Amino acid sequence: MGDHARPGRTGMWLIGARGSVATTAIVGLAALRAGLVPPTGCVTALPAFDSAPLPGWDEIVVGGHDISAADLRKTADGLVAAGVLPAGVVAAVAPQLAEAEAELRPGFDPATRAETGADAAVRLAGDMSAFARRHDLDRVVVVDVASTEPPWPAGARLLTAADLDAVLAADEAVPASVVAARAAVRAGCPYVEFTPSTGISVPALGALARQRGLPYAGADGKTGETLLRTALAPMFAERALAVRSWAGTNLLGGGDGATLADPGTAASKLTAKSRGLHALLGDEVAAPLHIDNVPELGQTKVAWDHVHAEGFLGSPVTLQLTWSACDSALAAPLVLDLTRLVALGHHAGCSGPLTALGCFFKDPFGAGGDPDRHRFDHQVRELHEWVRSLSGGGAR
Which family does the similarity line name (predicted)? Predict the structure, then answer.
């Protein structure tokens, strides 16, 4: 067990562990441990967090689930070819990649119907618990970075854990994210929903997590276009400029592009991306938003936004912007940050949704339509206040 004042040895258990975001996080963590790269993009490496009792890079142990059997090194080499990861860094951390590979286990694939969701939840929970015992971990933070799923409205009707478990035991198509979240709660693990999938947002699961003293955070990591929107939209509002429309187009390739080409799956992402803008500017703002799969872009994600506002005496104000970046490289350091911060919250005795981590998410738990809970500047202030409160002792 670790120092009582610190979270100690922490597991980072990744759902979708062989995907681009997870692989980038695993390579990045190993490179940070070895001092091969600076912690660029890691919020918790900023000077403001120097006194926070966070687990160190060398205290984080990696494991995870995935339905793919591809080797992590193969995924990493693909990311090198795509220009996401430096070849020299991947080669230097090859032993650490092999160690992580040895800790990956088969995930749950509802498409195969090979097991019920209930049986899968027990199996996945057993993997998480065995991982914690094997490495003498103080806690395991489960982070869902798997592919986005279509919405699961049936989850809102599950009022108790017994209702949920009955559905999981039946021969029904239950989202893999819900099974993974149920497994995490069963294993006593705090949880991060880094995707817009249903996961732990099922009310029965949230209630069970609170009952068991488990914190959780989400949903849908905020890495690009939505980050810009939650920083810029308040500027228009505070200057009394009336935004009439805010149109957005997202171009992406790779696995995300293929997944989100399905309209049903894209609906989860579009809802998460739109909620904050409407909360900040009002529902009357026209905000068409769509996602296009452009395979040639590979790992690069491009977002175009066109903002039309009205100024004094009806004068037009127009803003056009383009954001282009490798999304996996933006998301991976946030996965590391959230692992450290959720471990801190769990160690301090927090339970339920960690609303102070809203700056990391497009659709933060507990934010609803409250504009202040979507403003990036307010979110960052709340994060720093929360970390200071825990650094000085006492949970919120």
Answer: Belongs to the myo-inositol 1-phosphate synthase family.
Are 339 and 12 spatial neighbours (Cβ–Cβ below 8 Å)?
Answer: yes
Domains of the chain: 10-221+329-391 (3.40.50.720), 225-326 (3.30.360.10)
In tens, the pLDDT along 259-296 reads 777 777 777 778 877 888 889 999 899 989 888 889 88
Between CA 189 and CA 265 the distance in angstroms is 27
40-54, 99-113, 231-245, 275-289: least confident range: 275-289
pLDDT for residue 228 is more than 60: yes
pLDDT per residue over 296-311, tens digit each? 888 899 999 999 999 9
Find the farthest-apart pair of alpha carbons in the chain and give their distance in angstroms, rounded. 68
